[in-house]
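User: Can you write out an input/output pair for a complex, sequences first and structure second?

Assistant: Here is one pair. Inputs:
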Amino acid sequence: MKNESALKDWTLIILFAAVVLTMPIWLKPLGANYPDLMQKFAIFGLFAIGFNILFGLTGYLSFGHAAFLGIGSYTAVWSFKLLTMNVLPAVIFAVVMAGIFAFLIGFVSLRRSGIYFSILTLAFAEMSFNMAYSVLTPITNGETGLQLSLKDPRILDNFQGEGIPITNLFGVKMSGMPGFYFCAAILIIGFFLSVRITRSPFGMMLRAIKSNQTRMAYTGFNTRPYLVWAFVISGMYAGMAGALMAVTDPLAGAERMQWTASGEVVLMTILGGAGTLIGPLIGAGIIKYFENIFSAFNEQTLNEVFGALPDTLQNIVVKIAGLFVGEGWHLLLGLMFLIVIIFLPGGIMEGFRRLGKLFRLSGRSA
Amino acid sequence: MDTIILQVLNGIDKGAAYALIALGLTLVFGTLGVVNFAHGALFMLGAFTAVTLRELLTLSKKVKDESVTFFDAYKEIPYLEIYLGDFGTAIVDYAVPLSILIAIPFMLLVGLVMERGLIRHFYKRPHADQILVTFGLALVLQEIVKKFYGANPIPQAAPDIVAGSANIGAWIGMADSMVYPWWRLIYLAFALAVIFAVFAFLRFTTFGMVVRAGMQDRETVSLLGIDIERRFTIVFGIAAVVAGLAGLMYTPISPPNYHMGMDFLVLSFVVVVVGGMGSLPGAVLAGFLLGILQSFASLNEVKSILPGIDQIIIFLVAVVVLLVRPRGLMGRKGIMED
């Protein structure tokens, strides 16, 4: 039995890797196969996977995970500035730094549960955001955002060429498609780890905390260390996502830490299906797709899409559809939240599950 | 001394807005057990009833401007002025306070429709679902308002008679330099009146007594044969009205735009939690407390000692309060801790 489920997990991971690596091919008909957007898919997917380890497994809803995203970005950019343009040290430092901060914030916030925990994390993240904007300007460069400059020491690089160098992995430039493949590789590793964590005794413990924390305490388990570890791990995922943002575009701004960014990952996770392995990724993909593709639509593209319709009908359809794209893409997003959450309480993954059940049932009766 | 009093006033007035939003938020939470992320959108809708009323009142007709003789010039005169003369002008001038009359039934209707149509299906669902669905609703409402009124803030004037500043210094025998905008004083008085009205309603009416009993123990109240859900729906309507009025009266202080609700929402949540989930006095107390602390932190003297404190004070206080008092200032045990 155990071997069977392990086999299933491996199939899932290999399938997942195949799907991620072939993204440039199957995203083409959707018009989303440009590297910039695919990098975002991978980065926010990673962010959501990490968030899900905390929220999906333990049920603790953090409203301040963007802080770790920002910390990861800042650390990575500083590594580019001071040490080297190689991305490996940047990524490692970012994860470690995010882990340290996650430990500190998690240690304090996890003294409370429920909404009190949510507000504590929100408070810490908003403090980080506001300080990055104001007092910490020497470190964060305030409103302008932290950028690379020609005067940076970069002590490990003896490169003295013209202009600002590009981030690289041992010489391979990390922009465009190679950048995407780097993010994709890390996403696959992150997914693999999240599957292992979910299946491990540790993951089991986290789910037990979600179902009944009091019972856990009565059976003699101290739940806090598990929660703190879950918080640190998910903070490290966020730090990694932040570092990847800096890798693909070496710039870090404070707005990455704002509550809207924290809220975004919450929405991604719930939309896709909290507690499922793939759900958060689907949620992240959909929201980023909406944000980048639908917001770029204008009347002309709509006319092309509905060009086959008769003229009067086309005009009406374009008028109506025009409300939901371009500037109004938030309306579409809001409606989608409403529809998904009203009809599919478990997120999009529940929709898939229901479809699967339907087909299996009809298959059996036939 | 002057500066201290002024800062307290400044803070009270922002605190009044926080308190009003937090009051509605915690009322909904205490009765229905729903975390309403669309509450900020209700605040925004209230503000836009004032904008709408002004636009309706100033529907204008183009008439020839007689004072320009060199060429044909046209100016717009509101119909109201044409038909009612000076009285019409006065009505336009009082657009903001007048819109209260429209906002009360309108917000009540919005609240009831929202509760019956959407929220009530989410009583038993996890809080995460409630957050997502109300957030989705807030996005939709925002976008609809943006479609009609655009993305830019629309300034609203207070009535001329209270446009200037009150010379508070002279009243209490202090320096003449102590002035404070009239409208902010009115906002403060208005907020206090609304808060007292809500409390009095809950305390001294039979309806309020039933609602309070329902907040304590919903099951027993329904076993007694009282349709508590129906009353809670009305409470939601009242919360919507309170949020709407708070937004409407805020328009002369800060010009409304479509995302003003979201900006207030997060801070209001902090206020509610610091006050203690489900505690009405707690919400009001925390609202004023945080408002005043924030305005003190933005004093230059304070900032020179603790740089950047004005940016983080609210959150810092929230952290400290939650660590010292686990359920906020006046929260009860066992609410929303799982």
